[in-house]
Every structure is written in C-alpha cells, then in structure tokens.
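Researcher: Structure for this, please.
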Amino acid sequence: MIRTLLFTALVGLGATASAADGRRPAEASSMLSQLAVPDDYDVVFQDPDGKVIPYERFKAAMASRPFDVIKDAKAHRATLRLESDAVIAQRRAAEAAPAPQVAAPRAFPDFVTSTIDGKSVSLASLRGKPFVASFFFAQCAPCIAETPVLSAYHRKHPEVPVVAFTFDDRETAREFVRARGLNWPVVAGQQALIDAVGVAVYPTLMRIDAQGRVTSAVRSDTVKAPGQPLGVADLERWIGPVH
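Model: Predicted structure, token format:
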C-alpha cells in the first residue's frame, strides 16, 4: 500500500457531480489522472474520520482542505481521505520550519545503484565534478510544480550532472517521469539514502562539490524571488558555474 501526501494545488480539477459511495465517478477523471490513479482502480472518498462520502461533498471540502491518497495495488483501489485538523496543523508547522541548511561541507552518502532506465550511477562515478541532487516524490504537489523548470534547466545545461532521488518504487517513479516529462536521471527506492542525508522536506535541492561533499541544501522555493514562480534563472544563480 502506498500512502502519499497531497496539497491543495489540485483543487478544482473535477467537475461538480454526484457519485455513489465507493464508485469511481467519471466527473473526477481529470483529477484522478493528475493523481496517477489507474483507470481500473475503484475509488473511495472519505471524510477526515474515514467515513465514506459522496464525491460532490469531497470536492466541496477539498477547496479548503488537503487530502491524502492511499493506493492499494493488490485490490486495485484508491482511497482519497480529507486531512484532519490535527494533521493539517502538523503539516503547517513542518512547512514553517526553517529551510535545511548546511553549516559546513559534509559528505554525501556513498551509493551505487541504477536509474529507472537501467543506467549505472554512483557517488564515485560523479566525483571529480560538482553535481546537483533533487529529492521528490510522485504525489508531492510542489515537486510536480517544479518539474518543468528542472527539465528546462537540464536541457539548457546538459554539462551539469544532476540526479533525482525518490523513495517511490520504480514503477511509480517511471509513471511520474512519463506523465511529467522529467528529464533528470531518476533513482527510485532510496529511502535509506534519503534518511542518511537527512531530507525531511520536499522538494529539496542539494549542491555537491567535486569531492562529494554537500555544500548547500535548500527547499526549492527558497531559491526564487518572493512571490515569483521558480525559474531557470533562479537555479542558475543558486547552482552557479560548474567546472
């Protein structure tokens, strides 16, 4: 079972409708597609207490309340549950926490693995030239929002080594790449590395020097101008020249 946090960025994607409890409403197809819920999944909508509610009530509530998506691949079922007030308060407290900072260079965890398209990648293979690491997960709305900018940066600066890490499994990561057009090399199933490097906020970007040391770790939204969307120029300014 996969449980992932969704923010309110997807509000308004469904049309008003009435749907029987426990059924997949056709009127919600656009929203469910954005959430990467397969077409053959049954869909259940729940209130914060776990009580099944009709789709129109869920849609009205999600205009002001985030929700979780719980996917059960074995049962071919997805549950969309509105967040409770307690969970919302905890999330807001986490979002208000200071951005991750690196006081002094520290070693990036050693790793040897392969990307979702089967290419070998390791810290040793990247050492000798600075690279950029991105941390995301498939159902993270801010991660989805920044994907076009990351891809645009990679197209403009193919000389800069970049790697994206996620705790999602390979299938979920592949679907994210396919649906979102992310062109960064992606390494899936990296919860252990994520824990080792200390990432707790998504999305996070890290700059690693030629010796394999983390020299900067930031939330993506902290490298842009206040009130402005993230742009390629923001990444260029933060990453700087890579020699």
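Researcher: Any notable elements?
Model: Residues 1-22 have pLDDT under 50 and may be disordered. The chain has eight helices and twelve strands.
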